[in-house]
TrEMBL record:
Name of a matching Pfam family: VWA
Signal peptide positions (record): 1-21
Keyword list, A-Z: Signal
Keyword Signal: yes
SUPFAM superfamilies documented for this protein: vWA-like
Keyword Signal: yes
Domain of life: Eukaryota
Stated name of the protein: VWFA domain-containing protein
PANTHER family: COLLAGEN ALPHA (PTHR24020), VWFA DOMAIN-CONTAINING PROTEIN (PTHR24020:SF84)
Amino acid sequence: MLIRCIIGVLVLCAIVSFVDSQGSSIFPPSCYLNVLIVLDRSDSVKGGFNRSRDFVLNVSQELNINQNAHIVAMIVYSGASYRRQVFKWNFAKSNEEFYQVVRNLRAIGGTTATKKALEVALDLMDSRNKTIPTLIMVVTDGRSQDDPSEPAKHLQAIPNTYMFAAATGDPALVDKQELYTIGGHVNHVILQSGRELAADLTRKLLREAQDKCRTTTTTTTNYQNITLGRELAADLTRKLLREAQDKCRTTTTTTTTTTTTTTTTTTTENPITGCEQDLVIVLDFSTTTHPIYKAYQELAERLVSRVKVGLRYTRVALVVFSSVGWTQTKFDLDRYDNAEDVMYHIRNLQYTGGTTAIGEGISEAMKQADEAHGARPELANKIMVIFTDGWNNKGPEPGEMSKKAQALGFDLYTVGVKEPESSETQLNQLTLESIAPDPKHVFTNENFDQFIEIARRRNLKCL
Ligand SMILES: *[C@@H]1O[C@H](CO)[C@@H](O)[C@H](O)[C@H]1NC(C)=O
Ligand SMILES: *[C@@H]1O[C@H](CO)[C@@H](O)[C@H](O)[C@H]1NC(C)=O
Ligand SMILES: *[C@@H]1O[C@H](CO)[C@@H](O)[C@H](O)[C@H]1NC(C)=O
Ligand SMILES: CC(=O)N[C@H]1CO[C@H](CO)[C@@H](O)[C@@H]1O
């Protein structure tokens, strides 16, 4: 039924591209729109009003009602002797408000006085925002007791105004001539119809609509003969409206992002979640561990995926070591605010090779106790987890470094990976236990899940 409305959207598309190609407008006009709904409440067919009301509700889903985008007004009418309800521009400040009002409308009997309603519409048009386009949608099955053609012509003649007439009832019972008079053009009449060929037609229309948006200026395609089933037509219209507004949405997204950033910044300093945790992951990327480093990456990723990563929750830093002088902080605690980015970084680490300098790795990781690297002393608990086989052959004494790290408040764990074949010799238990405060802080791939549970503890109430 909304099919002809599409033409309205096409016209808007044309304006969009036109304005755009001139570069004179940042926002396409279809982002700003006055929408005036004139709703026939007479219920000449039992249940007819409910259908019309639901139609309006449905179409409104594609609107972005708010003072800076789509501004709505509405006239609800029946016979001349019945009270008309006039909702002035901006009566609803949001889609929710609009929805509330419309949903609570009930049918009242009586005749249909569309002429009178359109005269009221003319009055309302005076107070619209004249700098933006206006869409007028008259929802009626026709058969007005008074002749609406006079005020309809006046409305159609208002610059930058697009007028449509929509009927939600059985097309056979609709006064098509009257709808034509109101819409002013056959393409501005929206009727219900069967759903035959609807899918094909829809696809064709969509394709054409998009072509129009790209090339534009002439919108002469005649859809006179095309009718669609109600549901499909509503879908289609909504889709087109959405596409017409794509540019607005990009803008909105940008705004939202800004807002989010602001919020995050504010909240970092403000509320304490009780889930603060500084997690420093230290990976042994030396030759002795090749190709086990891949297993370290996988375990580290799994760990990150299970805790609650966020600036107010678990912050993650990553240190990679191999030979002396090759130790590197890959990222500080305050670098990422989400698990995905951390995991992505870990997954894409390049293997370096070299000798093993565990002590130096721990020493580098200790920097993450510093606020300059994003640490939250007092607030967060500190975990340092070192993925290594323990075969240290260069650099500072790991046991000593470990004690220093513990003195800074780090709860220090080691994780080794056992290879299935030669499982006795591959892990240097002695070094591992000299690094860890006690054997309970030494883990392997086999009981790694137990370590994950420890690392999750601090976040549990925020998960
Ligand atoms: C119209 O909708 C209202 C509430 O939404 C309902 O109470 C009423 O029964 C409906 N009327 C018909 C005829 O379906
Ligand atoms: C009309 O709408 C435009 C776009 O939202 C807005 O910039 C302008 O301030 C509005 N004018 C009035 C008088 O409200
Ligand atoms: C609007 O129509 C679509 C189908 O076209 C339907 O799925 C949806 O439930 C309708 N929404 C309302 C609020 O009537
Ligand atoms: C395909 C189709 O619906 N064709 C119709 C176009 O309109 C004329 C008259 O308006 C009908 O006779 C055709 O059946």
